[in-house]
Each structure stands twice: as structure tokens, then as C-alpha cells.
Amino acid sequence: MDAVICFNDGYVSRIKVFEALGIKSGYNTERALLIIDNKRIFEAERIVNKVSLEARNKRRRLERGRTLLEESEELGITPSFISRLWQRFQDDGNVSSCYSTGDPRITMPNDDRYLAVTAKRKRRSTASDLSRQLFSATGTTVSRQKVYRRLGHIGLYVRRPVRCVPLTATHCRVRLTWIRDHALWTPQQWSCVMFSTSPGLVCSLIWINMESARYPLSPREHH
Q1: Long-range contacts of 149-157, Cβ-Cβ distance < 8 Å, separation of 24 or more
Q2: CA distance 92 to 207
Q3: Cβ distance 76 to 28 under 8 Å?
Q4: What single-letter DSSP state applies at residue 215?
Q5: pLDDT digit string (tens) for 132-150?
Q6: Band of pLDDT at residue 183, cut at 50, 70 and 90
Q7: Where does the record place the Transposase Tc1-like domain (predicted)?
């Protein structure tokens, strides 16, 4: 029967597993997805193993002669959704991800922790640098946007602190006087002046947490 399958040397109903995950009768598919999303993976494994143990002792109770369609109608959920839930658990032991039409998740929790630790240790690393370091360490390829999103989930955002030369009132007055004195210079006179291409303002990106983001970043003096 479609409603009874083999699991851990015992016979377990997919409906039984679905009910053990906390889905009550009468819930629609959207509500069922929300409940499953709030369940932890280890809770699902514990519940399924418990149901499997009960099935070995109460096989007669599971074989009620009802079809998967009848059970799904009783719970108010489509049979295809129950099949997807069970197949997902058999594939990776995970029932926490909701049904989605988007791309599957690329990074694992260990990859996310590696990105977080690396960003905190090297706060001036760019998203591209973090992506390359993750690939070198784990072999996982992610884009810059995914790095931004993963770090944003744990409260790490990028900001650009200002690094500049301090200017006093005397500096401003001297510069204004110099500009006025040279306002009428000819191109021949300017040809004897050497200009430097090094800017006095240097900007760089750093990773900060939410607590640091509450306070404005003051310019840091660079002599």
C-alpha cells in the first residue's frame, strides 16, 4: 500500500510521520508548511525513529487498509505534499526547508559559520575575498551577493568609514588665501607646479555588527 513504507527495518506510514511532526487535521498546505518550517531537524529525526519503533510493535495498527488519498483528505493536505516531505527527509534528513520555487541552498551551516568567523577576523576583506577563501577552505562556490546575504542574516553589514587629514581653521584660512593669490595665474605659470595624485581621503569597507551600526563612524585622522 502507498500509505505504508519500510523504514529502519519496520513499516511506517507517511501519514503517521506527518502527524508526528505536529500537523493537525484540517490545516491547509500553507499552514502545514509554516509548522514544518518551525521544527528542528533533530526533533524530526527523534520523532520518526520513535514512530518506526512503534510500527515494528504495532504493524497491524498501521495497516488499516486506507489509501494515501483517504488519509490526505482527512488531514486536508494533498498526497503529493506528503510524498515530498517524506522524500526530503529520506534524501538529507531535513524537513525544515519550506516548499519554494527558487534555487536550493548552496551553503551549509558550517560554511555560514566559516564566513562569519573570517569576516570578523578580517574586517577589511571584501565579499569577493570571502568567497574565494570559502572556496579554498571548503570547495563551495558562492557569489558576492550570497556572501552579503549570509552575513546579513547574522547581523554583519558593510560600511565605509572615512579616513581623512584633519583640517583646522588655520588650514582653511591658509588654503583660501593661497587660492585667491593664484586665481589669475596663466597656464605657463601653472606648468611649473607639480601636483600629487595621492588623495587626502581614503575610503575602505569593513564588516561591522548591528551594535556598532547604531553609532556613527567618526572620521579617523591620518597624518
Answers
A1: 150/107, 150/111, 150/112, 150/115, 150/116, 151/115, 151/116, 151/119, 151/207, 153/112, 154/112, 154/116, 155/209, 155/210, 156/116, 156/119, 156/120, 156/207, 156/208, 156/209, 157/207, 157/208, 157/210, 157/213
A2: 33
A3: yes
A4: S
A5: 988 888 888 888 888 888 8
A6: confident
A7: 112-182
